[in-house]
Amino acid sequence: RLKVYDNGDHTCLVWLPDDGKPIPDCRGFSIRRVSKGQQVYLHGFVGFSDTDKIDPKNPWKFPVQRFMWWDYSIQPGDVVQYSVVPVVGPSKDQLSLDPGNASPLTPAMTISGQSTPHVSSFFNKGIVAAQWVARQLAAAPKKSKIKDLVSQPGNQLRNALSGLLRPAILALLAETKKNNGKIYAALYELNDPELIPALETFGKDCNLILANGAFKGNKPPDNDENAAVRAQLKGKVTVIDRIVPLGHFGHNKFVVFCDSEGTPQRVLTGSTNWTCSGLCTQANNGLIVDDPAVAADFLAAWNRIKDAGNAYPPALASANSTAKTFQVDGCKVTPWFVKTSAAQDLEFARNLINAAKEGILFLFFNPGIFQEDPMHWTLLQNILERHNPASQATYNADLYFCGVVNQDIPQLTKPLDPSTASPSSVTLFKNGVEPPNRLSQDVLVPHNIKSQFHGWEQELLGASMVNIHSKVIVIDPFGENPVVMTGSHNLGFKASNANDDNLVVVEGNAPLAAAYAINIIAIYQTYHWNSYVEAHRKDPQVWHGLVDNDQWQTGYLSGDK
Predict the structure, then answer these.
(1) Who has greater pLDDT, 530 or 279?
(2) What is the pLDDT, as a whole number, of residue 471?
(3) Residue 484: what pLDDT?
(4) How far apart are CA 239 and CA 196, in angstroms?
(5) What confidence tens digit (pLDDT) does each residue in 452-462 have?
(6) Residue pair 210/233 in contact by the 8 Å Cβ criterion
(7) Run of H or E including 88
(8) Which residues contact 54 (CB under 8 A, 6 or more apart)?
(9) What does the alpha-carbon distance between residue 226 and residue 191 come to, in Å, rounded to a whole number?
(10) Who has greater pLDDT, 21 or 415?
């Protein structure tokens, strides 16, 4: 049984034997892909020993010893079908394909970031501690710095790391300009050498609320990270300054696209700052809702921010403290804007988290510190509380968790010695009971991977200390009521109480939930593998290739892996 999920960036294949039992003599699987009348066999990247070399004529002899695989070699618009074929034999030297036990060829699937007709999502690659990045850097001129390469329009690495996200943003801008439309943007940071000229093409029809970014003080020059680009754009586009004081962030990253009359048509939001690092060296997402009513709601929020000047007047919080729900493609879309008066946005999200029946997946950038007061909890605390037996009303020990957090938060799930805390560390959560897997910088930079682990290349430290910048919660992605929450909102009380932010909650859109779910799982798997490497890289016996028997299946089928 094979299921295939697509988010435009890659396909995720998941399979199991019909009877749930190990396949005798199975040394792994090969994945048969049919596209454009041709078939290829997707294979693993290692053999049964350090000395094995892949046979180009029979790549299936490097099988996959897993029940999940990713196909990153597809492109939007491709029409693909898949079948998983067991690779069997009494030993690694006598292998053959077993088409009789293969899964049926899946129905034709067109690769697209379009989840439903009016809702789409796009992702970048973002994680620079990866094999393909190491290979591309090896081909770059000597002493090249990744920070410089991703700042060059047209650079191959920039284009690859930005994934489908950068082209999607540029295409929206170009289409709107072609139709003589107007845009209304609210941005936290801006420095990208492609996005800035794209804004400039609109002239005064670009209405830009430009905040002061990650500023350091309340007086010039420390109070405005965006001072240089602000000066560059004034006189070219309509710039509205939003210079908020310390303790606040003008943290939005949304654009409302309007027709030539200024009527809202669609909106782009998500986690992505309009910077080189936001596009290329941080894991980010973009959500596009092609609906005039939703776009109008964002434009109303844009006008509230404009009217607030540099402050947070009571009228702003009051207007943000209720939300409208819109019907789009048969699902519910509820945009929340903050600052709110009493964390009404978080309460809305908490009710959905507490209603989860099957599982919760998540990516957090900086949700905030552990809080005792439930009203001040981050949504991460609400998720972990679902595994707390003391919370009788919401406790569910069987609820599946899979999550990555960009910071190390003491007291989640057990007290942590502050002297050993590493605030910039990536942390992996698989439940709300066991201590999370707090990754060191050595995990993010597995510098000895090449010499200790078969053919893997030496990898590198990211250009930015930020690794996960997405802010996403996915609830029951394959259940009856899938939910996606995303936007610029960091999913904690500070965002709700002190920032300009937006949080879009989409209920009932199964393809969108699947797209975000496989993005989260792929990121989790990447860091989980790096963690394994760091834990065992000094042990020459720990792993040197595929297992030459059929017992490797047992752990997967019993749920231990």
Answers:
(1) 279
(2) 97
(3) 98
(4) 13
(5) 455 666 665 54
(6) yes
(7) strand 79-88
(8) 43, 47, 61, 62
(9) 8
(10) 21
User: Which amino acid type is present at position 229?
Assistant: V
Give the pair of three-digit tokens for residue 178.
């072609």
Nearest to 502 by CA among 307, 337, 330: 337
Q: Which residue has the tokens 């393809």?
A: 511
CA 57 to chain centre: 36
Given a cut of 60, whether residue 534 has pLDDT beyond it is: yes
Q: What letter represents residue 250's amino acid?
A: G
Which of 210-224, 317-331, 407-421 is the least confident region? 407-421
Instruction: Report which of residues 43 and 333 the model is more confident about.
Output: 333
Sheet holding 68-71, edge to edge: 2-6, 11-15, 68-71
Cβ atoms of residues 435 and 411 within 8 Å: no
Taking Cα atoms as reference points, which of 23, 26, 24, 43 lies closest to residue 95?
26
Is 293:326 a contact under the CB 8 Å cutoff?
A: yes
E-strand stretches of 349-399: 359-364
Residue 411 tokens, joined: 């007291």
* Mean pLDDT for the stretch of residues 375-383: 95
Nearest to 394 by CA among 352, 435, 361, 362: 352
Strand stretches in 444-500, DSSP E: 472-475, 483-487
Q: Which two tokens stand for residue 484?
A: 């996606």
pLDDT at 448: 43
Give the integer Cα–Cα distance in Å for 200 and 187.
15
Indicate the SS3 state at residue 309: coil
Q: Which amino acid is at 489?
A: H
Q: What is the pLDDT of residue 455?
A: 60
Distance between CA atoms of residues 40 and 181, nearest Å: 44
- What pTM does this model have? 0.94
CB 39 within 8 A of CB 560: no
Write down how long the chain is.
561
Burial code (b: 16+ CB inside 10 Å, e: under 16) for 51-66 equals ebebeeeeebbbbbbb
Residue 437 banded pLDDT, cuts 50, 70, 90: confident
Contact indicator for 2, 532 with CB cutoff of 8 Å: no
Q: From residue 291, give the alpha-carbon distance in Å to each of 69, 123, 336.
A: 35, 21, 16
Q: What is the pLDDT at residue 364?
A: 96
